[in-house]
Amino acid sequence: MKKPGVLIISHGSKDSGWTELVDHAVMQLSLPDGVPVYASFLENVEGRLIQDGIDELEQNGVTDILAVPLFISAGSTHVDEIEYALGAKPVPEKETDLELFRVKSRIHYGHPLHDDPLLATMIWDKLKPYSQEPSKEVILLIGHGSRHDGFRQRWEQGFSTLASLVKEISGVSEADYALLNPDHIKDKAAGYIEQGYRVLAMPLFLSAGYFTNVEIPKRLDGIDVEYSGDRTLLPHPLLHQWIEEQVDDMLRALADA
């Protein structure tokens, strides 16, 4: 007999507000009866780490763990190293200090938000209050990015697709992206302003923190943009829908296996 359980995995933060935002999204989930769910964190949340989640689910008789990486991009090195540490892939693409977890159950590893159309809708929902005249505006999505070859390209692909989707939904003149790694945030924003556009800059992070409050404003210093630093993705009602759709896909695959 197979008994599935859901393990939500996000980065974690010493700020309890991060944990509360993730927990709030998880509490909204509507899962099939008898499917337990545990929200775990890669670091910084004592007693709620990934191994704690694995142990809790297995103690409840779970034989198949449906792991959902709650990260923005498939280009995140964390997505890769967690997949490896769970035993869902034989070797990581990039060297990691993360040790293998103790896992007895079968692992089914999902995917991050990346370029999902639901994410594009969430982005425009957050930016819409800042928009005044879409035909004269440019949306600039700002993400973490990566210096590592292979991972950087995934960030670029995902954000490029998202920008196209957001442009279509919003009706703005243009939508583009810029990354912290490699850094071309200031150049991108300044270029659009020189062309006469009003730039709506959104940090594409799950929750506010150092990057949204300090690092990105520093990179934009002296550039006249409308920065929505207080409108990160969480909370948003569509996030639990995204998780539910992914879990449903994995449950169907498990039933067919």
Throw out a few tags for this protein.
40% helix; 18% strand; alpha/beta; 4-stranded parallel beta sheet; 8 helices; 257 residues
Distance between the termini: 12 Å
Q: What number is the mean pLDDT?
A: 96
What structural class do the secondary elements suggest? Answer: alpha/beta
User: Nearest-angstrom radius of gyration?
Assistant: 19 Å
Fraction of residues in helices?
A: 25-40%
* Total beta-strand segments: 8
Shape: elongated
Q: Helix segment count?
A: 8
Low-confidence stretches: none
Describe the protein in words.
The structure is a single chain. The model has no long low-confidence stretch (mean pLDDT 96). By secondary structure, this protein is α/β, with parallel strands linked by helices. It is elongated. The protein has helices spanning 16-27, 50-59, 77-85, 117-127, 151-170, 185-194, 210-219, 237-256; strands spanning 4-10, 37-41, 64-69, 106-109, 137-145, 174-181, 198-203, 226-227. Helix 4 packs across helix 5 (151-170). The strands form two sheets. It has a four-stranded parallel beta sheet, with helices on both faces. Helix 3 (77-85) links the parallel strand 3 (64-69) and strand 4 (106-109). It comes from Paenibacillus urinalis. Keywords: Lyase, Metal-binding. This is CbiX/SirB N-terminal domain-containing protein.
Sum this structure up briefly.
This protein has helices at 16-27, 50-59, 77-85, 117-127, 151-170, 185-194, 210-219, 237-256, and strands at 4-10, 37-41, 64-69, 106-109, 137-145, 174-181, 198-203, 226-227. The protein is an alpha/beta fold.
